[in-house]
Amino acid sequence: MRRIGIVGAGQAGLVLGIGLRQLGYDVTVFAERSAQDVRAGRLISNQCLFAPALERERELGINFWDADAPPVREVAFAAAGEGAEPAIAWRVGLDRPAQSVDQRVKVSDWMGEFDRLGGELRIRRVGPDELDECAREFELLVVAAGRGPQFDSLFPRDDERSTYREPQRAIGIFYVAGKIDAVPGLTFGMSHVGEFFLLPVLSVHGSVHGLGFFGVPGGPMDVWDGVADVEQHYETARKLLRAHYPWQAALLDEARPVASADLLHGRITPVVRRPVGTLPSGRKVLAMGDTAVTNDPIGGQGANMAARAARAYQEAIVERGDRPFDEEFMHDAFARYWQHARPATRFNNDLLAPPPEHVLATLDTAQHVPEVAHRFAHLFENPADYEGWLGDPEAAMQYLRATGLR
Ligand SMILES: Cc1cc2nc3c(=O)[nH]c(=O)nc-3n(C[C@H](O)[C@H](O)[C@H](O)COP(=O)(O)OP(=O)(O)OC[C@H]3O[C@@H](n4cnc5c(N)ncnc54)[C@H](O)[C@@H]3O)c2cc1C
Known about the structure:
This protein is an alpha/beta fold. Helices cover 33% and strands 24% of the residues. Strands 3, 4, 5, 8, 9, 10, 11, 12 and 13 form a nine-stranded mixed beta sheet that branches. The radius of gyration is 21 Å and the shape is globular.
Protein backbone atom coordinates (compact mmCIF):
# COMPACT_ATOMS: atom_id res chain seq x y z
CA MET A 1 0.00 0.00 0.00
CA ARG A 2 1.12 3.58 -0.58
CA ARG A 3 3.39 5.13 2.05
CA ILE A 4 2.25 8.41 3.56
CA GLY A 5 4.13 10.41 6.21
CA ILE A 6 2.50 13.08 8.37
CA VAL A 7 4.50 15.51 10.52
CA GLY A 8 2.37 16.59 13.48
CA ALA A 9 -0.14 14.71 15.61
CA GLY A 10 -2.92 17.26 16.06
CA GLN A 11 -6.51 17.61 14.96
CA ALA A 12 -5.45 17.68 11.29
CA GLY A 13 -2.67 15.08 11.20
CA LEU A 14 -4.35 12.44 13.33
CA VAL A 15 -7.77 12.61 11.65
CA LEU A 16 -6.05 12.19 8.27
CA GLY A 17 -3.71 9.50 9.60
CA ILE A 18 -6.51 7.47 11.19
CA GLY A 19 -8.77 7.85 8.14
CA LEU A 20 -6.03 6.63 5.78
CA ARG A 21 -5.00 3.83 8.09
CA GLN A 22 -8.60 2.59 8.18
CA LEU A 23 -8.38 2.29 4.38
CA GLY A 24 -5.16 0.28 4.63
CA TYR A 25 -2.60 2.97 3.71
CA ASP A 26 0.84 2.61 5.24
CA VAL A 27 0.90 5.71 7.44
CA THR A 28 3.61 7.13 9.72
CA VAL A 29 2.87 10.06 12.02
CA PHE A 30 5.72 12.08 13.58
CA ALA A 31 4.57 13.37 16.94
CA GLU A 32 6.55 15.92 18.89
CA ARG A 33 5.39 14.53 22.23
CA SER A 34 4.15 11.18 23.54
CA ALA A 35 0.45 10.71 24.34
CA GLN A 36 1.23 10.81 28.08
CA ASP A 37 3.16 14.07 27.72
CA VAL A 38 0.34 15.66 25.72
CA ARG A 39 -2.25 14.61 28.32
CA ALA A 40 -0.18 15.91 31.21
CA GLY A 41 0.83 19.09 29.40
CA ARG A 42 -0.44 22.63 29.10
CA LEU A 43 -3.71 23.71 27.58
CA ILE A 44 -3.61 23.68 23.77
CA SER A 45 -6.87 25.20 22.55
CA ASN A 46 -10.54 25.69 23.34
CA GLN A 47 -11.55 23.58 20.32
CA CYS A 48 -15.31 24.03 19.96
CA LEU A 49 -16.25 21.69 17.12
CA PHE A 50 -19.46 22.26 15.21
CA ALA A 51 -21.66 19.61 13.63
CA PRO A 52 -19.88 19.08 10.27
CA ALA A 53 -16.51 18.46 11.92
CA LEU A 54 -18.09 16.21 14.56
CA GLU A 55 -19.78 14.30 11.76
CA ARG A 56 -16.37 13.49 10.25
CA GLU A 57 -15.16 12.12 13.59
CA ARG A 58 -18.35 10.04 13.89
CA GLU A 59 -17.92 8.66 10.35
CA LEU A 60 -14.44 7.48 11.34
CA GLY A 61 -15.71 6.08 14.66
CA ILE A 62 -13.30 8.25 16.66
CA ASN A 63 -15.96 10.22 18.54
CA PHE A 64 -14.98 8.57 21.82
CA TRP A 65 -16.45 11.24 24.11
CA ASP A 66 -20.03 11.76 22.91
CA ALA A 67 -21.50 10.29 26.10
CA ASP A 68 -19.42 12.51 28.41
CA ALA A 69 -18.87 15.80 26.59
CA PRO A 70 -21.38 18.50 27.56
CA PRO A 71 -23.43 19.38 24.46
CA VAL A 72 -23.20 22.95 23.22
CA ARG A 73 -26.88 23.46 22.41
CA GLU A 74 -27.23 27.24 22.29
CA VAL A 75 -25.46 30.43 21.35
CA ALA A 76 -26.00 33.47 23.60
CA PHE A 77 -24.78 36.76 22.19
CA ALA A 78 -24.49 40.13 23.94
CA ALA A 79 -22.88 43.44 22.97
CA ALA A 80 -21.85 46.02 25.54
CA GLY A 81 -23.58 49.39 25.53
CA GLU A 82 -23.22 52.52 27.65
CA GLY A 83 -24.68 51.16 30.91
CA ALA A 84 -24.54 47.94 32.93
CA GLU A 85 -26.94 46.07 30.64
CA PRO A 86 -25.95 44.93 27.16
CA ALA A 87 -27.11 47.07 24.23
CA ILE A 88 -27.92 43.95 22.24
CA ALA A 89 -28.68 40.48 23.63
CA TRP A 90 -30.18 37.34 22.17
CA ARG A 91 -29.88 33.57 22.42
CA VAL A 92 -30.79 30.83 20.01
CA GLY A 93 -30.59 27.03 19.75
CA LEU A 94 -28.19 25.22 17.42
CA ASP A 95 -29.92 22.69 15.14
CA ARG A 96 -27.20 20.14 15.96
CA PRO A 97 -25.17 20.51 19.15
CA ALA A 98 -21.52 21.48 19.00
CA GLN A 99 -18.93 20.04 21.42
CA SER A 100 -15.61 20.89 22.96
CA VAL A 101 -13.30 18.08 24.05
CA ASP A 102 -9.91 19.17 25.39
CA GLN A 103 -7.32 18.54 22.67
CA ARG A 104 -5.07 16.97 25.31
CA VAL A 105 -7.76 14.29 25.68
CA LYS A 106 -8.43 13.94 21.96
CA VAL A 107 -4.84 13.86 20.78
CA SER A 108 -3.70 11.38 23.41
CA ASP A 109 -6.68 9.05 22.79
CA TRP A 110 -6.29 9.31 19.01
CA MET A 111 -2.58 8.53 19.21
CA GLY A 112 -3.59 5.30 20.96
CA GLU A 113 -6.20 4.58 18.29
CA PHE A 114 -3.74 5.24 15.45
CA ASP A 115 -1.32 2.82 17.07
CA ARG A 116 -4.10 0.22 17.57
CA LEU A 117 -4.91 0.47 13.85
CA GLY A 118 -1.31 -0.44 13.00
CA GLY A 119 -0.13 3.08 12.16
CA GLU A 120 3.51 3.87 12.92
CA LEU A 121 3.94 6.59 15.52
CA ARG A 122 7.40 8.07 15.87
CA ILE A 123 7.90 10.36 18.82
CA ARG A 124 10.18 12.88 17.24
CA ARG A 125 10.19 16.55 16.36
CA VAL A 126 10.96 16.98 12.67
CA GLY A 127 12.48 20.41 12.08
CA PRO A 128 12.56 22.05 8.64
CA ASP A 129 16.13 20.81 8.06
CA GLU A 130 15.11 17.22 8.71
CA LEU A 131 12.17 17.11 6.32
CA ASP A 132 14.22 16.04 3.32
CA GLU A 133 15.62 13.01 5.11
CA CYS A 134 12.04 12.16 6.16
CA ALA A 135 10.47 12.76 2.77
CA ARG A 136 12.78 10.16 1.17
CA GLU A 137 10.89 7.40 2.97
CA PHE A 138 7.42 8.34 1.73
CA GLU A 139 5.47 8.78 -1.46
CA LEU A 140 3.74 11.77 0.14
CA LEU A 141 4.81 13.86 3.13
CA VAL A 142 2.19 16.13 4.71
CA VAL A 143 3.24 18.82 7.21
CA ALA A 144 0.49 19.30 9.80
CA ALA A 145 2.67 20.80 12.53
CA GLY A 146 0.37 23.59 13.67
CA ARG A 147 0.85 27.36 13.57
CA GLY A 148 4.00 29.39 14.08
CA PRO A 149 7.07 30.47 12.15
CA GLN A 150 9.04 27.20 11.99
CA PHE A 151 8.05 26.47 8.36
CA ASP A 152 7.85 30.13 7.24
CA SER A 153 10.39 29.81 4.46
CA LEU A 154 9.06 26.47 3.20
CA PHE A 155 5.45 27.65 3.02
CA PRO A 156 5.65 31.44 2.54
CA ARG A 157 2.73 33.79 3.15
CA ASP A 158 0.26 34.02 0.28
CA ASP A 159 -0.07 37.80 0.08
CA GLU A 160 -3.25 37.75 -1.97
CA ARG A 161 -5.10 35.50 0.46
CA SER A 162 -3.74 36.90 3.74
CA THR A 163 -5.51 39.91 5.24
CA TYR A 164 -3.30 40.75 8.24
CA ARG A 165 0.41 41.03 8.97
CA GLU A 166 0.12 41.42 12.73
CA PRO A 167 -1.82 39.69 15.51
CA GLN A 168 -5.26 41.25 15.90
CA ARG A 169 -6.02 40.13 19.44
CA ALA A 170 -4.23 39.54 22.76
CA ILE A 171 -5.64 36.18 23.81
CA GLY A 172 -6.02 34.80 27.33
CA ILE A 173 -7.99 31.64 28.10
CA PHE A 174 -8.29 29.35 31.09
CA TYR A 175 -10.46 26.57 32.45
CA VAL A 176 -12.71 27.11 35.45
CA ALA A 177 -15.01 24.82 37.43
CA GLY A 178 -17.78 25.51 39.92
CA LYS A 179 -21.18 27.12 39.79
CA ILE A 180 -21.47 29.06 36.55
CA ASP A 181 -24.67 30.79 35.53
CA ALA A 182 -24.66 30.41 31.74
CA VAL A 183 -26.63 28.92 28.85
CA PRO A 184 -25.89 25.28 27.97
CA GLY A 185 -23.68 26.37 25.12
CA LEU A 186 -21.54 29.15 23.81
CA THR A 187 -21.74 32.59 25.44
CA PHE A 188 -20.19 35.34 23.36
CA GLY A 189 -19.73 38.93 24.52
CA MET A 190 -18.58 41.83 22.38
CA SER A 191 -17.36 45.34 23.21
CA HIS A 192 -15.30 47.89 21.31
CA VAL A 193 -12.15 46.81 23.21
CA GLY A 194 -12.48 43.07 22.56
CA GLU A 195 -14.55 39.96 23.06
CA PHE A 196 -15.02 37.12 25.52
CA PHE A 197 -16.49 33.66 25.23
CA LEU A 198 -17.51 30.96 27.66
CA LEU A 199 -17.93 27.33 26.68
CA PRO A 200 -18.51 24.00 28.46
CA VAL A 201 -15.60 21.64 27.85
CA LEU A 202 -14.78 18.02 28.62
CA SER A 203 -11.20 18.43 29.81
CA VAL A 204 -8.53 16.16 31.26
CA HIS A 205 -10.10 17.14 34.61
CA GLY A 206 -13.68 16.31 33.60
CA SER A 207 -16.43 18.86 32.98
CA VAL A 208 -15.19 22.46 33.11
CA HIS A 209 -15.80 25.78 31.36
CA GLY A 210 -13.31 27.47 29.06
CA LEU A 211 -13.31 31.25 29.38
CA GLY A 212 -11.44 33.24 26.76
CA PHE A 213 -10.73 36.94 26.28
CA PHE A 214 -9.69 38.55 23.00
CA GLY A 215 -8.36 42.06 23.52
CA VAL A 216 -7.69 44.58 20.77
CA PRO A 217 -3.87 45.06 20.91
CA GLY A 218 -2.81 48.11 22.89
CA GLY A 219 -6.30 48.49 24.39
CA PRO A 220 -7.56 47.90 27.95
CA MET A 221 -8.08 44.15 27.35
CA ASP A 222 -4.49 43.66 26.18
CA VAL A 223 -3.48 42.60 29.69
CA TRP A 224 -1.97 39.12 29.60
CA ASP A 225 1.74 39.76 29.04
CA GLY A 226 2.57 40.14 32.73
CA VAL A 227 0.19 37.48 34.03
CA ALA A 228 2.33 34.70 35.45
CA ASP A 229 0.01 32.18 37.10
CA VAL A 230 -3.54 30.94 37.17
CA GLU A 231 -4.54 32.91 40.31
CA GLN A 232 -3.44 36.15 38.69
CA HIS A 233 -5.26 35.10 35.53
CA TYR A 234 -8.43 34.47 37.55
CA GLU A 235 -8.31 37.92 39.18
CA THR A 236 -7.57 39.56 35.82
CA ALA A 237 -10.52 37.75 34.21
CA ARG A 238 -12.87 38.98 36.94
CA LYS A 239 -11.64 42.55 36.47
CA LEU A 240 -12.18 42.35 32.70
CA LEU A 241 -15.73 41.06 33.18
CA ARG A 242 -16.56 43.84 35.63
CA ALA A 243 -15.03 46.56 33.47
CA HIS A 244 -16.18 45.55 29.99
CA TYR A 245 -19.08 43.09 30.38
CA PRO A 246 -20.80 44.35 33.57
CA TRP A 247 -23.85 42.13 33.08
CA GLN A 248 -21.42 39.21 33.56
CA ALA A 249 -19.62 40.74 36.57
CA ALA A 250 -20.58 37.88 38.90
CA LEU A 251 -19.83 35.08 36.41
CA LEU A 252 -16.76 33.77 38.25
CA ASP A 253 -17.86 34.48 41.83
CA GLU A 254 -18.53 30.81 42.56
CA ALA A 255 -16.01 29.33 40.11
CA ARG A 256 -12.33 28.55 40.56
CA PRO A 257 -9.42 27.86 38.19
CA VAL A 258 -9.03 24.15 37.48
CA ALA A 259 -5.25 23.64 37.35
CA SER A 260 -2.06 25.62 37.04
CA ALA A 261 -1.40 24.29 33.50
CA ASP A 262 -4.91 25.09 32.29
CA LEU A 263 -4.25 28.55 30.95
CA LEU A 264 -2.95 29.99 27.73
CA HIS A 265 -1.80 33.46 26.69
CA GLY A 266 -0.65 34.64 23.29
CA ARG A 267 -1.15 36.41 20.00
CA ILE A 268 -1.68 34.79 16.65
CA THR A 269 -1.02 36.34 13.26
CA PRO A 270 -3.67 35.08 10.84
CA VAL A 271 -2.01 33.85 7.67
CA VAL A 272 -2.72 31.83 4.54
CA ARG A 273 0.39 30.14 3.21
CA ARG A 274 1.44 28.73 -0.14
CA PRO A 275 0.64 25.08 0.56
CA VAL A 276 3.30 23.33 -1.55
CA GLY A 277 6.89 23.53 -0.30
CA THR A 278 10.05 22.55 -2.15
CA LEU A 279 12.81 20.88 -0.15
CA PRO A 280 16.53 21.29 -0.99
CA SER A 281 16.41 17.95 -2.84
CA GLY A 282 13.60 19.23 -5.04
CA ARG A 283 11.03 17.00 -3.33
CA LYS A 284 7.64 18.57 -2.65
CA VAL A 285 5.75 18.58 0.64
CA LEU A 286 2.15 19.56 1.35
CA ALA A 287 1.02 21.81 4.24
CA MET A 288 -2.16 21.05 6.16
CA GLY A 289 -4.27 22.44 9.01
CA ASP A 290 -2.83 25.48 10.82
CA THR A 291 0.47 25.04 8.96
CA ALA A 292 -1.39 25.93 5.76
CA VAL A 293 -4.04 28.35 7.06
CA THR A 294 -3.87 29.89 10.54
CA ASN A 295 -6.76 31.93 11.87
CA ASP A 296 -7.22 33.83 15.10
CA PRO A 297 -9.39 31.67 17.40
CA ILE A 298 -12.05 34.37 17.71
CA GLY A 299 -14.43 32.60 15.32
CA GLY A 300 -13.69 29.08 16.55
CA GLN A 301 -12.77 27.91 13.05
CA GLY A 302 -9.25 26.35 13.22
CA ALA A 303 -9.99 22.87 14.55
CA ASN A 304 -13.14 22.72 12.45
CA MET A 305 -11.05 23.63 9.42
CA ALA A 306 -8.44 21.01 10.35
CA ALA A 307 -11.17 18.35 10.29
CA ARG A 308 -12.33 19.60 6.88
CA ALA A 309 -8.74 19.56 5.61
CA ALA A 310 -8.36 15.96 6.73
CA ARG A 311 -11.44 14.99 4.75
CA ALA A 312 -10.44 16.95 1.63
CA TYR A 313 -6.87 15.58 1.63
CA GLN A 314 -8.04 12.02 2.24
CA GLU A 315 -10.47 12.21 -0.66
CA ALA A 316 -7.76 13.63 -2.93
CA ILE A 317 -5.32 10.86 -1.89
CA VAL A 318 -7.86 8.10 -2.52
CA GLU A 319 -8.90 9.53 -5.88
CA ARG A 320 -5.27 9.70 -6.92
CA GLY A 321 -5.20 5.90 -7.10
CA ASP A 322 -1.72 4.74 -8.14
CA ARG A 323 -0.65 7.99 -9.79
CA PRO A 324 2.20 10.01 -8.23
CA PHE A 325 1.58 12.54 -5.46
CA ASP A 326 3.19 15.28 -7.50
CA GLU A 327 2.92 19.04 -7.32
CA GLU A 328 -0.29 19.05 -9.36
CA PHE A 329 -1.86 16.61 -6.89
CA MET A 330 -0.83 18.83 -3.97
CA HIS A 331 -2.34 21.97 -5.47
CA ASP A 332 -5.51 20.04 -6.24
CA ALA A 333 -5.78 18.69 -2.67
CA PHE A 334 -5.36 22.18 -1.21
CA ALA A 335 -7.82 23.66 -3.71
CA ARG A 336 -10.49 21.21 -2.50
CA TYR A 337 -9.82 22.31 1.07
CA TRP A 338 -9.69 25.99 0.16
CA GLN A 339 -13.32 25.84 -1.06
CA HIS A 340 -14.24 25.53 2.62
CA ALA A 341 -11.29 27.39 4.11
CA ARG A 342 -11.86 30.53 2.02
CA PRO A 343 -15.25 31.54 3.49
CA ALA A 344 -14.23 30.33 6.96
CA THR A 345 -11.11 32.51 6.81
CA ARG A 346 -12.99 35.52 5.49
CA PHE A 347 -15.69 35.19 8.18
CA ASN A 348 -13.04 34.83 10.86
CA ASN A 349 -10.93 37.76 9.61
CA ASP A 350 -13.99 40.01 9.38
CA LEU A 351 -14.83 39.23 13.02
CA LEU A 352 -11.50 40.83 13.92
CA ALA A 353 -12.38 44.14 12.27
CA PRO A 354 -14.71 46.70 13.89
CA PRO A 355 -18.24 45.57 12.95
CA PRO A 356 -19.66 47.57 10.04
CA GLU A 357 -23.17 49.05 10.06
CA HIS A 358 -24.88 46.11 8.33
CA VAL A 359 -23.42 43.64 10.85
CA LEU A 360 -24.55 45.74 13.81
CA ALA A 361 -28.00 46.02 12.22
CA THR A 362 -28.10 42.24 11.80
CA LEU A 363 -27.08 41.58 15.41
CA ASP A 364 -29.68 44.10 16.59
CA THR A 365 -32.47 42.62 14.44
CA ALA A 366 -31.58 39.15 15.74
CA GLN A 367 -33.08 40.22 19.07
CA HIS A 368 -36.53 40.48 17.50
CA VAL A 369 -36.38 37.98 14.64
CA PRO A 370 -35.30 34.50 15.75
CA GLU A 371 -34.57 33.48 12.15
CA VAL A 372 -31.84 36.16 11.96
CA ALA A 373 -30.29 34.99 15.24
CA HIS A 374 -30.48 31.40 13.98
CA ARG A 375 -28.76 32.26 10.72
CA PHE A 376 -26.00 34.23 12.46
CA ALA A 377 -25.32 31.48 15.03
CA HIS A 378 -25.07 28.86 12.27
CA LEU A 379 -22.31 30.78 10.47
CA PHE A 380 -19.89 29.17 12.92
CA GLU A 381 -20.72 25.71 11.56
CA ASN A 382 -21.44 26.85 8.02
CA PRO A 383 -19.24 29.84 7.13
CA ALA A 384 -20.08 29.18 3.46
CA ASP A 385 -23.27 31.15 4.13
CA TYR A 386 -21.20 34.23 4.99
CA GLU A 387 -19.98 35.34 1.56
CA GLY A 388 -23.40 35.69 -0.05
CA TRP A 389 -25.01 37.16 3.05
CA LEU A 390 -23.25 39.00 5.86
CA GLY A 391 -20.05 39.40 3.87
CA ASP A 392 -22.01 41.46 1.35
CA PRO A 393 -23.47 44.67 2.86
CA GLU A 394 -26.11 45.01 0.16
CA ALA A 395 -27.31 41.41 0.48
CA ALA A 396 -27.31 41.69 4.29
CA MET A 397 -29.47 44.83 4.29
CA GLN A 398 -31.83 43.37 1.71
CA TYR A 399 -32.27 40.30 3.91
CA LEU A 400 -33.01 42.51 6.92
CA ARG A 401 -35.54 44.57 4.99
CA ALA A 402 -37.32 41.33 4.13
CA THR A 403 -37.82 40.73 7.85
CA GLY A 404 -40.02 43.84 7.92
CA LEU A 405 -38.08 45.32 10.84
CA ARG A 406 -35.68 47.47 8.80
C1 LIG B 1 -6.88 29.82 22.54
C2 LIG B 1 -7.34 29.02 21.37
C3 LIG B 1 -8.68 28.70 21.26
C4 LIG B 1 -9.14 27.99 20.15
N1 LIG B 1 -10.45 27.69 20.03
C5 LIG B 1 -10.90 27.02 18.94
C6 LIG B 1 -12.29 26.69 18.81
O1 LIG B 1 -13.11 26.95 19.67
N2 LIG B 1 -12.68 26.02 17.67
C7 LIG B 1 -11.80 25.70 16.70
O2 LIG B 1 -12.21 25.12 15.69
N3 LIG B 1 -10.48 25.99 16.80
C8 LIG B 1 -10.02 26.64 17.89
N4 LIG B 1 -8.69 26.93 18.00
C9 LIG B 1 -7.77 26.59 16.89
C10 LIG B 1 -7.40 25.12 16.87
O3 LIG B 1 -6.90 24.72 18.13
C11 LIG B 1 -6.34 24.87 15.80
O4 LIG B 1 -6.70 25.51 14.62
C12 LIG B 1 -6.19 23.38 15.53
O5 LIG B 1 -5.74 22.73 16.67
C13 LIG B 1 -5.23 23.15 14.37
O6 LIG B 1 -4.98 21.79 14.24
P1 LIG B 1 -3.60 21.30 13.59
O7 LIG B 1 -3.63 19.83 13.65
O8 LIG B 1 -3.41 21.98 12.30
O9 LIG B 1 -2.48 21.90 14.54
P2 LIG B 1 -2.16 21.57 16.06
O10 LIG B 1 -3.41 21.25 16.79
O11 LIG B 1 -1.34 22.70 16.55
O12 LIG B 1 -1.29 20.24 16.00
C14 LIG B 1 0.00 20.25 15.48
C15 LIG B 1 0.82 19.18 16.18
O13 LIG B 1 2.11 19.12 15.58
C16 LIG B 1 3.09 19.06 16.60
N5 LIG B 1 4.33 19.62 16.03
C17 LIG B 1 4.67 20.92 15.88
N6 LIG B 1 5.87 21.03 15.30
C18 LIG B 1 6.29 19.77 15.07
C19 LIG B 1 7.46 19.24 14.47
N7 LIG B 1 8.41 20.05 13.98
N8 LIG B 1 7.59 17.90 14.40
C20 LIG B 1 6.61 17.08 14.88
N9 LIG B 1 5.48 17.52 15.46
C21 LIG B 1 5.32 18.87 15.53
C22 LIG B 1 2.51 19.85 17.74
O14 LIG B 1 3.10 19.45 18.97
C23 LIG B 1 1.04 19.45 17.65
O15 LIG B 1 0.79 18.29 18.38
C24 LIG B 1 -8.21 27.60 19.12
C25 LIG B 1 -6.85 27.90 19.27
C26 LIG B 1 -6.42 28.59 20.38
C27 LIG B 1 -4.96 28.89 20.51
